[in-house]
Amino acid sequence: MFRYTILLSVMLGSLIASMSTQASHLTTMHSFCSLPDGSRCLDGETPASRLVEVGSELYGTAATGGSASRGTLFRISTAGTFTLLHAFCQETYCSDGAGPGNYLSRGPSGAVYGITAAGGTADSGTIFKLSKDGTFSVVYKFCSEARCVDGIQPVSVLFGGEGNLFGTTTSGGRHGGGTAFEIDTHGAFRVLYDFCAKDGCADGASPGALVRGRDGNFYGTTLAGGANHAGTVFRMTPGGKVTVLYSFCETARCLGGEQPAAMLVEGPNGDFYGTTTQRGANRSGAIFEISPAGVFRTLHSFCIDAKCSDGANPVDGLVLAKDGTFYGTASGGGRFNYGVVFHMTATGRYSVAYNFCSLHGCFDGADPAISPIFGSDGLLYGVTASGGINTGDGTVYRLVP
Asked: Which among 194, 187, 107 is positioned nearest to 150, based on CA atoms?
């Protein structure tokens, strides 16, 4: 395991803080490529996952960079101490995985689980585990079964109430449209559902990350398929029975949006909230609400003016605040056209909380494709895919909501 610690300089942190032009409520905690090695950024480049908090530490991944340029797994304290935990593709044929993705999950005994989109068997992705003591291991390698019926390119994993892992893959499976799967506490893998099982992929294809509702069922979206070939919202029982709740693009102009790509979040009212990357009233994505019975409404369509000052094309979903409101990010638009963090009430009242690239050279970060999380201290912690004080390879930030 390749491991070292980077301590951010007090002088550099003071410089960034002094340059803030936006109410000084965003702090850049780490700028990637802080350890360059020739053409490589040993600490990682292009952070790719929501952070997950374990104790007082935050864990995340970078999609590229590291000693093999295939991504890293890192930890950062709320004080800004950065620790590289694993550089991917350290083993022959990247059997430990490559290209880690979004949505890390906290497991039993302080372990952290995640996925890689590549590496493993046939370069089809892996599930990995980082134990509390820092031991890295591979839980499962996809395309381990003939014709990749177990799936290709996992999206995420989460723990169910039974202690089993549940997740999805974007492709592979018996019909090529992706899978939903379960891994039990003994490590046994089984496919719960094969997407694109119905004519015209009416049940959806390329599923995104799952979330477990308070009713015990799983809810998610598909990027494609559905009655209008624009994606779906679905419900899945723990046993694998899938019901399509909504097919996007029901209207001629797709006012409700299309191509949902992110994890849903359950609101206090029991409805689920999410985003679409495309369409909506202004063709730049939308935020929606859907009930477990399939009642759908659009809450916000992005790009409300010529400059898209409210943001555009959200890639990730929403996070729920303690007061029942939501935060999220749009990777484009905003005052400087480098993305925003936004705030929205449950009724759809929308406002921009932060415009990225407020500092000269985008030292505060740019392209916030991944949504932040709430730490136990009530502050937002997130990453940007580019910007920062080094070579523009992304940042970790803290934001006062």
From this structure: 194
Residue 17 token pair: 């803080």
Rounded Cα gap, residues 301 and 313, in angstroms: 10
238-272: pLDDT as tens digits: 999 999 999 999 887 899 999 998 999 999 999 99
Contact status, residue 23 vs residue 45, Cβ threshold 8 Å: no
Residue in 159, 149, 152, 168 with CA at minimum distance from that of residue 129: 159
Portion of the chain with pLDDT greater than 70, in percent = 94
Copy the structure tokens of residue 361.
């050279």
The amino acid that residue 144 corresponds to is S
Nearest to 314 by CA among 325, 296, 299: 299
- Distance, in Å, from the CA atom of 155 to the CA atom of 148, rounded to the nearest integer, reads 16
Residue 372 has pLDDT above 80, yes or no: yes
pLDDT at 209: 97
In a 10 Å sphere around its CB, with 0-12 CB exposed, 13-18 middle and 19+ buried, how is residue 314 labelled?
A: buried
pLDDT in tens, 272-284: 999 999 999 999 9
**CA separation for the pair 59, 50 (Å, rounded):** 9
Using alpha carbons, select from 178, 155, 177 the residue that is nearest to residue 166.
155
Query: Are residues 101 and 63 in contact, defined by beta-carbon separation less than 8 angstroms?
Result: yes
Q: With CA atoms as reference, report the closest residue to 64 among 84, 76, 82, 47.
A: 47
Q: Could you give the C-alpha distances from 341 to 148, 171, 328, 381, 382, in angstroms and in order?
A: 38, 30, 6, 11, 10
Question: What are the start-end ranges of the E strands in 65-164?
Answer: 72-77, 81-87, 98-100, 105-106, 112-118, 126-130, 136-141, 152-159
Q: Which helix (H) or strand (E) holds 16?
A: helix 10-19
Helix, strand or coil for residue 14?
helix
Nearest C-alpha neighbor of 170 from the set 134, 107, 118, 214: 118
Q: Which of 237, 290, 240, 285 is nearest to 264 (CA)?
A: 290
